[in-house]
Amino acid sequence: MYKKYRLINVLTIALLSVFLLASLSFAQEVVSPDQEKVDPEMVLATVGDAQIRVRDVNAVIATLNPQQQFMFATDYGRAKVLEELINKELFYLYAQDQKIEEDEEFQKDLENVRKSLMTNHALKLLLRDVTVSEEEVAAYYEEHKDEFSEPEQIKASHILVESEDMAIEILAELEGKELTFEEAAEKYSSCPSKQQGGDLGFFTRGQMVTAFEDAAFQLEPGKMSEPVKTEYGWHIIKVAEKKPARQKPLDEVRETLSEKLTSEKQYKLYNDTLGSLREKYAVEYMNKTEETPEKTEEGEKEKTD
Fold first, then answer.
1. What pTM did the predictor assign?
2. What is the dihedral of CA 267, 268, 271, 276, to 10 degrees?
3. 85 and 196 co-located in one domain
């Protein structure tokens, strides 16, 4: 009986949701300017002993993506959300009448939910006090400065063609100012970057083929190269901007570094706690043919050695 009820409940809610979204697509109302002044504790409806308040409607809308929030934040949309909340309460009363709580499968689901909530809450309590001090952040930065160095970068565009002769002809047009570089890229280049006027964005050494980057990094901003041959064809390269190599200052990386160190501390605490829990509570693998992750790692290590 419970399975049948659950199926009908899910299908009903799914159909109601589709109807609600379809209805909202035709809504023309705008958000009332007085909506923010409404008391969130104001009761909008009662179902039996349950009260549905403004804050309940707000809470549902807050879970939606921005586009849906815009749709549901109208007077029409809020009224539909209220109806859905009323329907939810009605089905809850129906579930009580049907004594769903006494159903064996419901009890199993309830226990699974309880265990999941307890596990998540235990992890939250375990990790919530893990912090990283300013001194720890600064010390890590000083000891690992190479992690925060930024190599030289250039912003360049190119025109890619099949032959050197064609590249020479295009270069002549560019030098004669018959076309801008962007116009020439759109007209002649076979590279997808032609859609952006040949723009390749910023890149560092090692990201492009050697012949291309050797030519590009030698150019000064605003200058064009002679035709350059690579395995892809012939290139005309133009450099727009150069960024010299630099060391990122601590203030620039402080937040990211703090998050990194905090995550590492949390991960260590998590693993250390798991280790102590395995010692405290008995864990027995019943299928002896399956190796535990630890044994597998040790076996791989032995093979390597």
1. 0.60
2. -140
3. no
